[in-house]
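Predict the structure of Helix-turn-helix.
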Amino acid sequence: MNRIKEVLEAKGIKQVWLAEKLGKSFNTINGYVQNRNQPTLEVLYDIAKILNVDIKDLILSNKENNN
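Done. Here is the predicted structure for Helix-turn-helix.
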């Protein structure tokens, strides 16, 4: 599970903008945001760089997930 949706909302950034910056389709980004698909680590790193956040901010901790 990822936290891309939460980070985008906190920063006021639209999925369309992120898709454009990554060179990916809106449907691909929407799949990540809705947790239907998970980005590769490389893509996750690129997202973190574009959003200027630590990659850890985009990942739901397995400790959080178990509670």
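The chain has one domain: 4-65.
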